[in-house]
Write a structure and sequence with these properties.
about 120 residues; mainly beta; disordered N terminus
């Protein structure tokens, strides 16, 4: 069964910048990346460093037309390596599924409202 077939919550294709920190590192550094899609329960993101399933991340992103950023803790549920190769360059990134493990009720409601009205 494909991952998309197992989803319980509606997802919205969503391309916005995010900031994240790997919380399991001794000195987490803020990195930038992109959200691919979003649901009330989590995100799919693209990052440029390899992380393991179970890794905890602090993630910050904004919803369109919202001033206050959303800050959550999330756990990596799955990781897929993605390579781009051309005659001019090669790049490796990782698509990751993130489950929210710490999110405020207000942020959860903001995400839900955004998904349902977009």
């Amino acid at each position: 069964m494909r991952r998309s077939d197992k989803r319980k919550l509606p997802r919205l294709l969503y391309d916005v910048e995010l900031k994240y920190e790997v919380l399991t590192l001794p000195s987490p550094k803020t990195q930038k990346s992109r959200v691919k899609n979003i649901s009330v329960g989590g995100l799919s993101i693209m990052i440029f460093e390899k992380v393991k399933v179970g890794t905890l991340l602090k993630i910050e992103f904004s919803l369109l037309n919202e001033d206050k950023p959303i800050v959550v803790k999330g756990k990596v549920l799955w990781v897929e390596k993605f390579e781009i190769v051309s005659t001019e360059f090669a790049s490796t990134s990782y698509n990751c599924g993130i489950e929210f493990v710490d999110i405020s009720p207000q942020d959860q409601e903001s995400i839900n409202h955004h998904i349902m009205t977009t």
